[in-house]
Structure formats: structure tokens, C-alpha cells
């Protein structure tokens, strides 16, 4: 995992260096900068959300836990909406 992070970081730094060299003489308005930052924020949220979704759906394996598997086999999964669990 550390190797993957290092490779991604090196790629991003090289892209930033190339972009800085290509855009050095250009002038940007504050609207352009704000739109760019909003886009970066949206992509970041999308990637983080996708990562959490994949972790929940693939990595956790809810029904591999012994207690949950026991209740699932017997058909007695607890009801989370009964009077004792309501706030």
C-alpha cells in the first residue's frame, strides 16, 4: 500500500510541476480559482465516498461474524426498530 501511495504522490507532483510550468504566464480570475477549488473538493468527496462505500460493501463481510451468521441461519435477526431501540 505504501508503494502505491508513493507512486500516486510522485505522479501528482509531476503533474503539478508540468502544470506550473505551462501556466506560469497566465492570469486567472478569482472565479476561475474558486471553480477549480470547488471541483477539487467535489472530486475529493466523491473519491472518499466511493472508498467508504467499497469498504462497507466488500471488506467488512457483515454476515461472516459468528453471532450474525447464527441469527441469519435461524431467521431471527433482531428488529432494530422496536420500542427498546428507538430514541
Automatic annotation (TrEMBL):
Keywords: Membrane, Signal, Transmembrane, Transmembrane helix. Residues 1-21 form the signal peptide. The chain crosses the membrane at residues 34-54. It comes from the Eukaryota. This is Uncharacterized protein.
Amino acid at each position: 500500500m505504501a508503494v502505491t501511495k508513493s507512486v500516486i504522490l510522485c505522479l501528482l507532483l509531476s503533474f503539478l510541476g508540468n502544470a506550473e510550468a505551462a501556466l506560469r504566464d497566465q492570469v486567472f480570475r478569482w472565479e476561475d480559482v474558486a471553480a477549480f477549488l470547488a471541483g477539487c473538493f467535489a472530486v475529493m468527496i466523491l473519491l472518499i465516498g466511493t472508498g467508504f462505500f467499497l469498504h462497507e460493501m466488500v471488506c467488512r463481510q457483515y454476515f461472516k461474524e459468528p453471532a450474525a451468521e447464527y441469527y441469519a441461519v435461524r431467521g431471527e435477526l433482531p428488529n432494530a426498530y422496536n420500542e427498546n431501540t428507538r430514541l
